[in-house]
Amino acid sequence: MTEIADIVADVRQRGDAAVADWSLRFDAVEPAPAEPAGDVPGDALLALAGAVRRWHERQRPADLREEVLPGVVLERRWTPLASVGIYVPRRLVSTLVMCAVPAQVAGVERIAVATPPEGAGLVARAAELLGLDEVWAVGGPQAVAALAYGTETIAAVDKLVGPGNAFVNEAKLLVSRDVAVDLPAGPSEVVVLASAGAELDVAELELAAQREHGPDAVCRIVEADGDLERALARVESLAPEHLVLLGEEAERLAPRVRNAGSVFVGRWSPVAAGDYATGANHVLPTGGRARAVGGLGLEAFLKPVTVQRLTPAGLARVRPVVEALAAVEGMPAHAEAVRR
Q: CA angle 264-268-274, nearest 5°?
């Protein structure tokens, strides 16, 4: 079996030729710019895009500038990334929206999309509706490597975002040594926490919807059975991508959840609404990563830049601190640098 690392290394070394070889091997077609084709429900797509835009516009962090000591001014300003590569799984036009629209809101200059050849026309059509013009019909680890390292025809990006299968995620982990990535997202997960009075037919609807993502989707129900604390502890240990709270205790439990990518509260809050309509992002941590990271948001397409300004008086004020710590750490040139 071919190692993902071999594919990534080959693309990094041979560029377009390697991308073509691996694409022919796995997808039986050569990579090419994707041409818009097929019918995309434009009104629905743009409704989702509008919801995503509204929610993510409100996430913009504030720039900060403050004189922290007399003569010492610190500034932290947020600036958009110059370029982003988006991996869109086969035919998932909603995922394109979830990744591309926040990038647009952030002000990213170049947005490059890669998606498997099957269904690439649909993704290109959706991209066209969103005002995007760089869509590559190439999938798998070779697409990730091409975006990360660049080829003769595909320019490298500053960051990679978007979910994928195990092979795509492995490739993202490999290239993360050299280019920023959002998080390895996939396979899909849903956990239903059923407290007293929960309607299990609703829970089964959620599990059935999640199973559509593939045979490796994680779908389970955790029933409280009179011990709500135990059930919550179990859910917290799973740290699922999607957590659905059903039953009489749903609202009371919601603010206590720490480990979940996205929480859906009550029978009228299906995961599918979040996938397609509410505007909350559906690119979420899986595999227990929700213990440490959250889902995709506007900040994924921004980076903070710190600016420092000192006056002569400000430098004189901090000079003793620098000299003392530089002496302890054996850095005499650091101490000398503040004597001017």
A: 45
Active site residue 56: no
What's the topology of domain 4-182? Rossmann fold (3.40.50)
Q: Could you tell me the pLDDT band of residue 219, with boundaries at 50, 70 and 90?
A: very high
- In a 3-state reduction of DSSP, which class is residue 5? helix
Q: Give me the catalytic one of 223, 242, 249, 282.
A: 242
pLDDT value at 1 more than 80: no
Is residue 282 annotated as part of the catalytic site, yes or no?
A: no
Same topology, domains 4-182 and 189-291? Answer is: yes
Catalytic residue, candidates 170, 241, 249, 282: 241
| Beta-bridge mates of residue 218 | 189
| Angle (nearest 5°) at CA 171 between 165 and 176 | 125
- Which superfamily does CATH assign the domain made up of 189-291 to? Nitrogenase molybdenum iron protein domain (3.40.50.1980)
- Sign for the CA dihedral angle at 309, 313, 316, 321 comes to negative
C-beta separation of 65 from 309 below 8 A? no
Q: Domain coordinates of the chain in residue numbers?
A: 4-182, 189-291, 311-337
Distance between CA 330 and CA 110 in Å, rounded?
Answer: 45
Q: Among residues 269, 277, 302, 273, which one has the least CA distance to residue 50?
A: 277
pLDDT higher for 1 or 202? 202
Task: Determine if the pTM surpasses 0.90.
Answer: yes
Residue range 264-280: mean pLDDT, rounded: 98
Q: Give the CA-trace dihedral at 284, 104, 33, 83, to 10 degrees.
A: -90
Q: How confident is the prediction for the chain on average, in pLDDT?
A: 97
d(CA 31, CA 50): 31
